[in-house]
Specification:
Length: about 700
């Protein structure tokens, strides 16, 4: 995404606090140290007999400033979990997998380990390389391991050490670029790219390490790139259950990478016996999420069809592996699925789709396109198949953290069954406010959706300050979920704020026309929605103090904070995290040009395009900035460079308006380090509290 997936989570909850029914007045506020120490669990990996699953748990210890993770075994019948490994410090355990019915596997610090399912014992090394592996999966039927590994232009793992030695012995540090991209997200381009590999590593009869064969690079048949810095790089992959075919996602390397959304899917035999076959040549939009049917006879994927538009609707395509025939499914659907898996009989695709603030499981008949919603309110974050009639899902809502549930696919609307309670002990006496949904007439007199979380210790006879959290994207949406990141509404509610989130024009989940409407309207329709939404909340809820309003946003939300500063003085304070101040300079320094060229309209160096950039450019209205603002930025944010925060901070300070800059030298577009996130919340909550504590400080 142009401005990243800075999606702010909220939701319709079930309990006042996870696992508890205590009255609100007896509950503690959600404080920063507790929030950052919560357990986070991964999507499960199911054993073929469907009775057991593997998942990982990770947590951060604020006192030690260290992170830990461990592997667990879940009995999918009883719901009992058994911790398999000790807590491991540092890099998170990843890629839980089944090597056979009695042996688990996982990746830790770039190597694959096997585990005998005994409680709290370390695994033993199963497979290792000189470069480290990631995103690994195993097919026991063929004894094949699949993984991504970073290699140089020859595509060989064995030569990486030699290349690195040459780099180490260089007498200069120059990096030379002839084509865009020079950098992406948080990294400068190098000749090292992730490739997809397969290798035979059978499990020995005694459960020990089998003899590994030579790794096969399944991308080796792709055409050479003219620029070694812009080579083929795998962005994801899938493997058929029988281990015969793999499908991988790549961005076709070319000098126009930064203004093209052409992402393709290739099909290749897992033994590398023939060259990869391009499946998506007919479309120049982005393809994603390849998934093989249970019997391996078909491959489905999601396809955007509009070139240059990264938020185009995703269409479902299905290809018959034998005949090569491809067809599109459910083209009448006006929502955009973002993930899917097959049913056991390969007749249905179970998809995840955003719908009115929820992430729902929707079944789609592959032949007819007929659809049925299997879940209601809340946020289903991932699904895997469990037998013929169930799914294992990661589900969350405002008052409940991510846990594993079962969904009965034959009982539409039936309650999900909860199997894990990752944070029950930590949150049983903590206030987690439910989201209260509302609708109002926004821009174009169209109905716009939002919700509110009441503050900790709420008393209807009192007046409370309001915190408006503005989501990023901008074609992203607030979701009915519990967020572990910087925009969890309950963190603001526990600090005493009525917390409001609004899915303005441009947000997905309300039909593609609603999403598309933000084009050339960055400071138009969304701004009108936000202002009318705040008006609605103030008029509807008498406990909101209209004189104590703050607005906060990241990425596009940070841009909107700057736009608010230029267009209204109704807010006591603002927070702009990695936002954009100058659309002109932002165009020339960003990494992904396709987004601004589509969304804003054209390029700023032409007579036709320049007015589009100036129309909603906050810098054009710099003389009108007057609201105290906290700016936060990461040094390695190449989506929106540091200058986009330095400039408005300089503006406010030079004009004598209170402003603060919080700079993280080891962060990018997001706050990735837990210790930095603790500091982030301290700075942000301190700033907005400072300007809303009655009487509010004057900033005239």
């Amino acid at each position: 995404m142009r401005f990243g997936v800075l999606v702010f989570a909220a939701a319709a909850g079930v309990l006042a606090a996870e696992g508890g029914n205590a009255s609100q007045n007896s509950l503690k506020p959600l404080d920063s140290h507790l929030f950052h120490s919560l357990n986070k669990i991964s999507p499960p990996t199911v054993l073929p007999d469907q009775t057991r699953a593997l998942y990982t748990t990770s947590r951060y210890d604020p006192e030690k400033n260290k992170s830990f993770s461990f592997l667990s075994l879940l009995d999918t019948v009883s719901g009992e979990s058994t911790q398999l490994t000790p807590e491991m410090e540092g890099e998170r355990i990843s890629s839980p997998m089944w090597l056979n019915e009695n042996t688990a596997g996982y990746v830790f610090k770039g190597a694959l380990y096997q585990h005998n399912l005994q409680p709290k014992v370390n695994g033993t090394l199963f497979y290792n390389t000189t470069v480290g592996i990631s995103s690994a999966t195993y097919r026991a039927a063929t004894g094949q391991l699949f993984f991504l590994a970073d290699v140089y232009s020859d595509g060989n793992i064995s030569s990486v050490a030699g290349y690195k030695e040459k780099e180490k012995n260089r007498t200069d540090s120059a990096q030379v670029f002839d084509n865009l991209w020079a950098r992406h997200w948080n990294k400068w381009m190098t000749p090292v790219k992730a490739n997809l590999f397969s290798v035979k590593v059978p499990v020995a009869e005694n459960g020990g390490l089998g003899q590994a064969a030579r790794e096969v690079n399944l991308m080796q048949g792709l055409a050479p790139s003219v620029d070694p810095l812009l080579r083929w790089e795998a962005e994801g992959y899938a493997v058929s259950n029988d281990g015969q075919h793999a499908a991988f996602v790549v961005r076709s390397p070319s000098p126009n990478l930064s203004w093209s959304t052409n992402v393709d899917i290739y099909l290749v035999p897992c033994n590398g016996s023939s060259q990869p076959e391009l499946l998506t040549e007919a479309y120049k939009g982005a393809a994603s999420n390849p998934v093989f049917s249970a019997d391996g006879s078909a491959l489905a994927w999601l396809q955007m069809e509009t070139p240059g538009y990264e938020s185009d609707i995703r269409r479902i395509f299905v290809r018959n592996i034998t005949t090569g025939q491809t067809h599109s499914v459910a083209r009448d659907w006006d929502l955009s699925p973002h993930f899917m898996i097959w049913s056991a009989d390969s007749s249905v695709l179970y998809t995840l789709v955003q719908s009115r603030g929820d992430s729902k499981v929707v079944s789609v008949n592959v032949l007819t396109g007929a659809r049925a919603e299997l879940t209601g309110s809340g946020y289903t974050a991932s699904i895997v198949r469990l037998g013929t009639d169930k799914l294992l899902a990661i589900y969350t809502n405002t008052t409940e953290t991510h846990d594993i549930y079962t969904i009965d696919v034959n009982s539409v609307g039936a309650p999900m069954r909860r199997l894990t309670q990752a944070n029950r002990d930590k949150l049983h006496d903590v206030y987690l406010g439910e989201a209260e949904d509302f609708w109002f007439a926004g821009a174009r007199k169209e109905q716009v959706h939002g919700w509110m979380v009441r503050p900790h210790g709420f008393n209807a006879s009192q007046k409370y300050p309001l915190a408006l959290l503005i989501h990023g994207g901008p074609q992203q949406a607030n979701g009915h979920a519990f967020s572990y990141a910087q925009w969890n509404p309950n963190m603001y509610a526990s600090a005493g704020f009525v917390t409001v989130q609004i899915n303005f024009h441009g947000s997905p989940g309300y039909g593609q026309n609603f999403t598309d409407s933000i084009r050339q309207q960055w400071g138009g329709l969304p701004y009108e929605d936000l202002m009318k939404g705040v008006d609605h909340v103030i008029a509807t809820y008498g406990f909101v103090d209209a004189q104590r309003l703050v607005a906060l946003g990241g990425s596009f939300g940070g841009y909107m904070a700057n736009w608010l500063n230029a267009n209204t003085d109704r807010f006591s304070a603002l927070v702009a995290h990695d936002g954009e101040f100058n659309l002109i300079s932002g165009y020339y320094s960003t990494d992904e040009l396709w987004f601004v060229e589509h969304d804003i309209g054209g390029v700023p160096f032409t007579a036709n395009g320049r007015p589009n950039y100036e129309k909603f450019n906050p810098e054009r209205l710099a003389a009108k900035f007057k609201t105290p603002t906290l700016f936060v930025h990461g040094a390695s944010d190449f989506r929106l460079s540091l200058e986009q925060s330095l400039a408005p901070w300089t503006l406010l300070r030079r004009r004598g308006i209170p402003a603060r800059l919080v700079y993280f030298e080891n962060e990018d577009h997001w706050i990735n380090h837990a210790g930095n996130s603790v500091r982030w919340y301290s700075e942000v909550l301190g700033w907005i509290s400072q300007w809303t504590s009655p009487p509010a400080p004057s900033h005239g």
